[in-house]
Amino acid sequence: MEKETARIEAFSDGVFAIAITLLVLDLHVPKPEDIKNTSMLISRLQQAWPSYMAFTISFSSIFIMWVNHHKIFKQIYKRNSTVMFANGLILFLVTSVSYPTALLSRFYNTSSAGLVVALYTGIFVLINLSYNLLWYAASRDKELLRPGMTDAAILRISRNYLYGLPTYLAAFAISFVYPAAAIAICVSLWIFWALSSGKVPGPL
Amino acid sequence: MEKETARIEAFSDGVFAIAITLLVLDLHVPKPEDIKNTSMLISRLQQAWPSYMAFTISFSSIFIMWVNHHKIFKQIYKRNSTVMFANGLILFLVTSVSYPTALLSRFYNTSSAGLVVALYTGIFVLINLSYNLLWYAASRDKELLRPGMTDAAILRISRNYLYGLPTYLAAFAISFVYPAAAIAICVSLWIFWALSSGKVPGPL
Amino acid sequence: MEKETARIEAFSDGVFAIAITLLVLDLHVPKPEDIKNTSMLISRLQQAWPSYMAFTISFSSIFIMWVNHHKIFKQIYKRNSTVMFANGLILFLVTSVSYPTALLSRFYNTSSAGLVVALYTGIFVLINLSYNLLWYAASRDKELLRPGMTDAAILRISRNYLYGLPTYLAAFAISFVYPAAAIAICVSLWIFWALSSGKVPGPL
Amino acid sequence: MEKETARIEAFSDGVFAIAITLLVLDLHVPKPEDIKNTSMLISRLQQAWPSYMAFTISFSSIFIMWVNHHKIFKQIYKRNSTVMFANGLILFLVTSVSYPTALLSRFYNTSSAGLVVALYTGIFVLINLSYNLLWYAASRDKELLRPGMTDAAILRISRNYLYGLPTYLAAFAISFVYPAAAIAICVSLWIFWALSSGKVPGPL
């Protein structure tokens, strides 16, 4: 059976690739006129560590989201309005990630750390919801799925997505009080997904 | 019959994907040295709501234009100079959208709202005209179209594109007096297109 | 016979698509704090006309260069070191176009117009040379070309590329004295190429 | 046998193409209000030569890394977690190249030249390590490789990657004392790779 979703996948791949690469634009280089000597440059670069952290974890998270996007679309052969809308929402939110990333990189070292971590974890709550919406829209109509898919296989994927939500919500909830712990929870989730993704058989 | 337009479609997809992702670069993050405390940061982020609005509606509009671009090129199998020129014009205008978007996001809250909304709706008038030109160039020469396409099918698409024009013109006309209403008209049109696009059968 | 150059073409397409879209980042939006009223905003936007001109003509030129890139690679089936190097040089120069474009858009209205127009036309001299190098490297070894290509067809393409060089050199030579005329010569060449490209048969 | 890695290659190509093109954004154009006359503009553009150098060598290095990426993935038919992780690391580091490039372009002319050259050569040490990791992960499990690959062919590629490491380490080691020589060593290595890459048979 012909796969109806090839073009939307290729377009989505493009948006993921651009969004992940644009993140680097938020690593700001000091101006030479502000720097008197090498030790001052070193100290400035060291102070910018939250921007390296933000770049690294946002890059990792978008990469993992791209892997998951593929895994879902490997199971989807036809599309309807809800699938299109949910996918558009995912692309919109993935593109947006660079904004809370920039906020995180600039304000993590300030008294506003709680707020920017809440915005940062908050966008992953929304992204998780939009992935759940995409899979819900596709899986409730077996006509859209890869022919021959079993109910057990559908259920396994559904569960896999659902358990991300409480983790992100927990991270979001503690953001204001324990910002570092909230970041750590998100990073742990991504490491867990990265490690477990290798075990799922079949082409990426 | 071989499709002559595969490469121009792939290139256009790339431009659409980049143009839609670059929009996020106009979400500006406040500088830490300008922010004294968290409530000041919150207030700054709230004041930036026109830039979130502009980002959201421009992202949605480019996404819908990309869907429409595909639908048209699914019917076009050969190209001539006018098709190439009209497509180049569409890509040029889609790339340009980020400029009136940036103007909208910075000046919607000022006394210049009417002007920037007129420029914003104005570019969609031009984009609509270039889509009409593309379809006119392709449809007047049946040699260029998908083999076996009926006159009725051609007419249905032609009508579909033409009725966008008066809507955009109406939005443009009232921009100076009722800027919010002009934006609302464009958004309504995109929602209508998004909802109706799911009903059109066939692969995207 | 298998085409060895598919991946280099896809990569080149990506670079062209990104380079053409990034041009829009040089359209700068005035800051709201510098603008007192709508007529001041209008006057600022009008004064920025060189940046609209530079964006428009650079976009057009990269689009036409992309079309030509495809036409050449439709004839090339194998690659050697020189083909790879010449193509890398083309991508490097096409990516660079945004820099003289930015200089043109900022200094065309100043006493430095001659210099920035010379730099702008100069990069097209270099791009033309690199296209000639690419085609020379491919065409002197018939093993690299599409099987069954005649000497007459090779010669026709060679001539087509060579006659661009004196035109660009003429534009470059008069840049300091007649900057507007130098720009006009380049634009005329691109219009000529755009009009004549439609007549060449075969898929793009 | 079906190639499992097609999508990861296409995504990687996209990231390489965007990363290489974004480098141009670090060529900064002087502001017209800072420039009094043409000779001042010329002198400013001349002073910016480290940014042209940095742009040129980073563009070349990413282009060569892309060529090598293809060569490796032509041999890889299946993926495991380590291959995915090593490839993700390569993409992360390639995207990051623009940051040490920007530092190099701004501080090469200052007393901090040693530091920024060390950071610049340092990232290529890391990239070399990640390529070695990718090839090590793929080659130690023959199941992942192109069917029919001989031990001799595997060994030839392994050697080819390993000898880059001491060269980069040497460049890194002398960065603080002889920054110009460290840059020259990297450039020589890339020229050597570029020249030798043409001799390797088979499609790119």
TrEMBL record, chains A, B, C, D:
Chief location = membrane
Q: Please provide the record's keywords in A-Z order.
A: Ion channel, Ion transport, Membrane, Potassium, Potassium channel, Potassium transport, Transmembrane, Transmembrane helix, Transport
Q: Tell where it localizes.
A: Membrane
TM region(s), chain numbering: 12-29, 49-67, 88-108, 114-137, 168-195
User: Catalysed reaction per UniProt?
Assistant: K(+)(in) = K(+)(out)
> What are the GO cellular component annotations?
membrane
Please give one Gene Ontology molecular function term for this protein: proton channel activity
Tell me what topology the record assigns in the membrane: Multi-pass membrane protein
The family annotation for this protein states: Belongs to the TMEM175 family.
What is the official name of this protein in its record? DUF1211 domain-containing protein
**Species of the source:** Dyadobacter flavalbus
Taxonomic path: Bacteria, Pseudomonadati, Bacteroidota, Cytophagia, Cytophagales
